[in-house]
Specification:
The chain has 3 domains: 189 residues, FAD/NAD(P)-binding domain, CATH 3.50.50.60; 96 residues, 2-Layer Sandwich (Alpha-Beta Plaits), CATH 3.30.70.1990; 71 residues, no CATH class. It is built from 12 helices and 14 strands. Helix 1 runs parallel beside helix 6. The strands form 2 sheets. Strands 3-5-4-11-12-13-10-14 form an 8-stranded mixed sheet, sandwiched between helices. It has a 6-stranded mixed sheet with strand order 6-2-1-9-8-7. The radius of gyration is 21 Å and the shape is globular. Helices cover 31% and strands 29% of the residues. It has 386 residues and is α/β, with parallel strands linked by helices.
């Protein structure tokens, strides 16, 4: 039997494509092939309501584990509450919803050894033929792109009493900076349950688990919280591109195979968040008149080129953060940013900056030394950084 769609990789991008195909093209035959033992990994994906198109928002929010009316940020000289709905989707909950809906169309421990535009070959020798093969296997670590990382260790904690949070604190940079831009991320999931993530914009992806656990323990104690149990642990590192062209990224793609998700460069270059782009692609795939690799691959490549070109400005901001500011002073860049207008902040997260927004972000009193910031303008690693 030839399937309509074979989805290689069971991460966020392909799970959302499967979900949207089932919504809008229920007769479509598909399989999701995940090399690991669980779907979706072990992640929490958060997003602002304004990140998504209004038509997409309802079906995505239906998958959310939590929704809040606003969020907070905290810095040494700035504390601010911002309006706008904020949502989180948990991988465990998304996986359960997909398993309930798709059953045996989801396959884990499926190690793929070959991908072509019309077939997938597994390590056990089995072959899956499909009119459309979509590759969503995650970041391909291309050699021609310089990156930093947003690395994190998160603990979902059950406390002995209420935490008192009514909305997420998406950045608390009042913590010790310790050689990187570091902040605590706090999401209230129940009156006595909170997700705390020790997060850093760092040069290397490895997360120091023991150090992060100590930082989380200190933060909880500082807030007056007593930990009853650790419900779940998550960790990871999101690529933060600094320089490089799409051709270097494209080298990790299989010729003629539609590529989605982080592997396709479809993520926010400064935050590392991929959910809004995954939602857009899921709606796009489900709405096509013709669904085959030959039609979809060039469509997604055009989208990837457009996103990568548009985000050149974000890569500039990333270079300023990583190279122009001393590690212990990097928080000042974000502190200044969160002092700007809420509309600009929303457009930043939604990747919809206007020319005036870009000008506003790099003018005024600079949060980094002027000449070091100037050296970051070309899309290359500044000489002084070596």
């Amino acid at each position: 039997m030839t399937l309509d769609v074979a989805l290689v990789g069971g991460g966020l991008a392909n799970l959302l494509i499967a979900w949207r195909l089932a919504d809008r093209r229920p007769d479509t035959t598909f399989r999701v092939l995940e090399a690991g033992s669980v779907l979706g990994g072990n992640h929490t994906w958060s997003f602002h309501g304004s990140d998504l198109d209004p038509d997409s928002l309802p079906w995505v929010v239906d998958l959310a584990r939590g929704t809040w009316d606003g969020y907070e940020v905290r810095f040494p000289t700035l504390t601010r509450s911002l309006r706008g709905r904020y949502h989180s989707i948990g991988s465990e909950q998304l996986s359960a919803r997909c398993r309930e809906r798709f059953g045996d169309r989801l396959e884990t421990n499926a190690r793929v050894v070959e991908v072509t535009p019309d077939r997938v070959v597994l390590a056990d020798g089995s072959r899956i033929d499909a009119r459309c093969v979509i590759d969503g296997r995650g970041w391909g670590a291309p050699s021609g792109i310089a990156v930093g990382y947003q690395r994190f260790v998160g603990l979902e904690l059950r406390l002995t009493g209420p935490h008192g949070l009514s909305r997420p604190v998406i950045m608390d940079a009042t913590v010790a900076q310790d050689g990187a831009y570091r902040f605590m991320y706090a999401v209230p999931l129940a009156p006595d349950v909170v997700l705390l993530e020790d997060t850093a914009y760092a040069d290397r992806p490895e997360a120091p688990m023991a150090e992060s656990r100590q930082a989380i323990d200190r933060y909880a104690a500082h807030r007056g919280w007593t930990i009853a149990e650790v419900v779940r642990t998550e960790s990871g590192a999101l690529p933060i591109p600094l320089t490089g062209g799409l051709e270097a990224l494209r080298a990790s793609w299989v010729p003629g195979v539609p590529t989605v998700g982080v592997r396709a460069g479809l993520f926010h270059a400064t935050t590392g968040y991929s959910l809004p782009y995954a939602v857009h692609v899921a709606d796009l795939v489900a709405s096509l008149d013709r669904l085959d690799s030959a039609s979809l691959a060039p469509t997604l490549e055009r989208l990837a080129r457009s996103v990568w070109r548009r985000q050149r400005f974000f890569r500039l901001l990333n270079r300023m953060l990583f190279f122009a500011a001393a590690p212990e002073e990097r928080y000042r860049v974000l502190q200044r940013f969160y002092g700007l207008g809420e509309g600009l902040i929303e457009r930043f997260y939604a990747d919809r900056l206007t020319p005036w927004d870009r000008l506003r972000l790099v003018t005024g009193r600079p949060p980094v030394p002027f000449f070091r910031g100037l050296a970051c303008l070309p899309e290359r690693i500044p000489t002084f950084s070596r």
